[in-house]
Design goal:
alpha/beta; eight-stranded mixed sheet; four-stranded mixed sheet; 14 strands; binds N,N,N-trimethyl-histidine; EC 2.1.1.44; transferase; S-adenosyl-L-methionine; methyltransferase; Histidine N-alpha-methyltransferase
Length: about 325
């Protein structure tokens, strides 16, 4: 068998239909919203890689340092023969885990981006000749079917990307992950922690304006895919801390009264001056909250690693 398989379970036209449905639903309701998954076209993915290197954006560094320090522990405690990674992207996040698992049989990177999976897969085949790689092109938030691979399996969901989901969506995803795990398997979850509001807001409104460009890029994605005429300069990037929900919200605020045309949907969308379009939530967590959400989905928190007050890694078992 080839050491590198790539399977597409997300039909190519599905992405276009999903974007049309999300824009139709999100821009004709109040308040207006768009799901954050549409940030990540090629330019958005590049901007996100730049964000992870910003001085203000600590989550990526904090998680990387935690993984450097705890990967050997995680490898020993789980004895994993298969590593599955949801939202694997460049597979940079799992570099330390893979290095700590020299006898790993199979790595299953899961992402919506075929280019990211192909690039990472070819790099890993060269670096790890004995490792089987089975990449899945799919949107795991709409369902996940895993190939049969040797157990025990470790499913990693890193980057605190689970924070992009509101509580009800998190419960659904954790329950679907639980249904995929067998006895002996484990989930490794990255979770950014609640901290000082100034630190949190700065991480999503950097001085260099990279996050502002990342946020506005979703308007370019809609312009290109649906022929819309969003003027990116007519919107202001806003990042605010919602202390009630304990999440950062990114919004695009209309600077003026304006109407945006979306011909592919035969829509004309009015924005009032000062009106916000919410583009992302990034929930921040507390250990007890993570323990409770995992338990609610049938998963027991068995290990918790933290790097100071910044960031947490949870190991959970069915
Ligand atoms: C990749 C979803 C974890 O929510 O912190 C970074 C995306 N948004 N800056 C996050 C993001 C603004 C990031 N996640």
């Amino acid at each position: 068998m080839s050491p590198f398989l790539i399977t597409r379970t997300l039909p190519e036209e599905a992405a276009d239909a999903a974007l049309r449905a999300d824009v139709l639903r999100g821009l004709t309701r109040t308040p207006k919203t768009l799901p954050p998954k549409w940030f990540y076209d090629a330019h958005g993915s590049e901007l996100f890689e730049k964000i992870t290197e910003l001085p203000e954006y600590y989550p990526a560094r904090a998680e990387r340092e935690l993984l450097m320090a705890s990967s050997a522990d995680i490898a020993e405690v789980t004895g994993a023969r298969t590593l599955i990674e949801l939202g694997s992207g460049s597979s940079e996040k799992t570099r330390y885990l893979l290095d700590a698992m020299p006898d790993l049989d199979t790595y299953v990177p899961v992402d919506v981006s075929e280019s990211a999976l192909t690039e990472a897969g070819h790099r890993l085949v060269a670096q790890r000749p004995g490792l089987n790689i089975h990449a899945l092109i799919t949107d795991f938030t709409t369902g996940l079917a895993l190939p049969g691979t040797p157990g025990p399996r470790l499913l990693a969901f890193l980057g605190s990307t689970i924070g992009n989901l509101v509580p009800a969506e998190r419960a659904r995803l954790l329950s679907s992950i639980r249904s995929l795990l067998s006895p002996g398997d484990a989930l490794l979850l990255g979770a950014d922690l609640v901290k000082d509001e100034q630190v949190l807001v700065a991480a999503y409104s950097d001085a260099a304006g990279v996050t502002a460009a990342f946020n506005k890029n979703v308007l370019s994605v809609v312009n290109r895919a649906l022929g819309a005429d969003f003027d990116l300069d007519a919107f202001e990037h806003v990042a605010r801390w919602d202390a009630t929900n304990e999440w950062i919200e990114m919004r695009l605020r209309s600077r003026t009264d304006q109407t945006v045309k979306i011909p592919a949907l035969d829509l004309a969308i009015d924005f009032a001056a000062g009106e916000d379009l919410r583009t992302e939530v990034s929930a921040k967590f507390r250990e007890q909250g993570v323990r409770h959400e995992l338990a609610h989905s049938g998963l027991e928190l068995t290990r918790w690693w933290t790097s100071g007050p910044l960031y947490g890694l949870a190991l959970a078992r069915p």
